[in-house]
Amino acid sequence: MAKLVAKTYGDALFELALEEDKVDVFVEETNGILQVLQENAELHKLMNHPKITKEEKNNVMEEIFKGRISEELTGFIHIIVTKDRYNEITYIFEYFLDKVKEYKNIGLAYVSAAVELNETQKKELMNRLLQITKYKQIDIVYSVDTALIGGMVIRIGDRVIDSSIRTKLYEMSKNLSKIQL
């Protein structure tokens, strides 16, 4: 359900950003809103309290953001609160940001390697990923997973490139178990 809500509202915000020609402005403001929401756990408790009315919640959000973000985003937050979708606000804004990245051909890759990659390897990997994908730019999140033994696993969206030694050993053992002597 949260995914459907995030998609519906995120798509609406994206369309509004395109219509108003404020994609970059909305991205900057959305990142700021997300930062405020993450840093203030008390605000989250307040906004989810059942005894506080929607009108009071809207007043709180207006007090925080009015004059700091565009009128369109202030109105968008008002709609989210009025429709009882505040719990999904983070997912909505994250979906919007992902949609903008897709629109601008900016990819996101998760790379797990057995050892820490040096700067030259990271640069070569980025260049190779730019060659094999449609993206003009790729943001890469690196992590080290010693269980891979060697090689790396790359995830871009729903695609996975697995060149780890662990997977190759698993496939070999699977193939060897099929052989009858």
UniProtKB/TrEMBL annotation:
| Localization (cell) | Cell membrane; Membrane
Identify the domain of life. Answer: Bacteria
Q: How does it sit in the membrane?
A: Peripheral membrane protein
Q: Does the keyword Oxidoreductase apply?
A: no
Q: Where are the transmembrane segments?
A: none
Q: Which GO terms describe its molecular function?
A: hydrolase activity; proton-transporting ATP synthase activity, rotational mechanism
Question: Could you confirm whether the keyword Hydrolase appears in this record?
Answer: yes
The main location class comes to membrane
Annotated Gene Ontology cellular components are: plasma membrane; proton-transporting ATP synthase complex
Keyword terms: ATP synthesis, Cell membrane, CF(1), Hydrogen ion transport, Hydrolase, Ion transport, Membrane, Transport
NCBIfam families given in the database record: ATP_synt_delta
What protein family is recorded? Belongs to the ATPase delta chain family.
Functionally, this protein is described as follows: This protein is part of the stalk that links CF(0) to CF(1). It either transmits conformational changes from CF(0) to CF(1) or is implicated in proton conduction.
Name of the molecule in the record? ATP synthase subunit delta
High-level lineage: Bacteria, Bacillati, Bacillota, Clostridia, Lachnospirales
